[in-house]
Amino acid sequence: FVKDVMELSPDFRGYGQQDAQEFLKLLLTYLETRLAAVPPSQPARLRNLVQDQFRGSYAYCTTCLACSRTSQVHVSFYDLDLKVQGLGRLEECLADFFSKETLQGDNQYACAACDAKRDAERGIQLLQVPRVLNLQLMRFVFDVKSGSRKKVSQQVSFPHVLDLAPYVARPP
């Protein structure tokens, strides 16, 4: 198996340490490519195995605070990148990822309905949760003072059961 992986990418040759998430992305991409070549006479579930197991989707939802119009941009994902700095529990990391932000000042939203820049709220809502949810804990941050990346050694506790219901979009 290791020899086969080394053949996939030069980054995994030799004895250097590699990021587990990068390895998983490479492996899933490789599997997707190989399975896409499965003849159409074979079951579709075989060709779509990686997507069916690992791909989810979410929407960036932006609501204009002047006219209340909401726009959505849909995104497919294979993992969620979670900030850990200053957070001690996985539930806090998820709450941070899905938290709403206010777009104002130089960062105002270009509302199509108002035909003007307006203050707005933006957040993320899960549309489809994958069967296998990969969470990437962002262990590095950019240190402005030193101009380099700094490792975050924050310990993060995981619950026995993960409830994503608060983050899943409700049907209209």
UniProtKB/TrEMBL annotation:
UniProt GO MF annotations: cysteine-type deubiquitinase activity
Keyword set includes Hydrolase: yes
Record field: catalytic activity: Thiol-dependent hydrolysis of ester, thioester, amide, peptide and isopeptide bonds formed by the C-terminal Gly of ubiquitin (a 76-residue protein attached to proteins as an intracellular targeting signal)
Keywords: Hydrolase, Protease, Thiol protease, Ubl conjugation pathway
Coiled coil: none
GO biological process, any: proteolysis
Family membership: Belongs to the peptidase C19 family.
Name of the protein: ubiquitinyl hydrolase 1
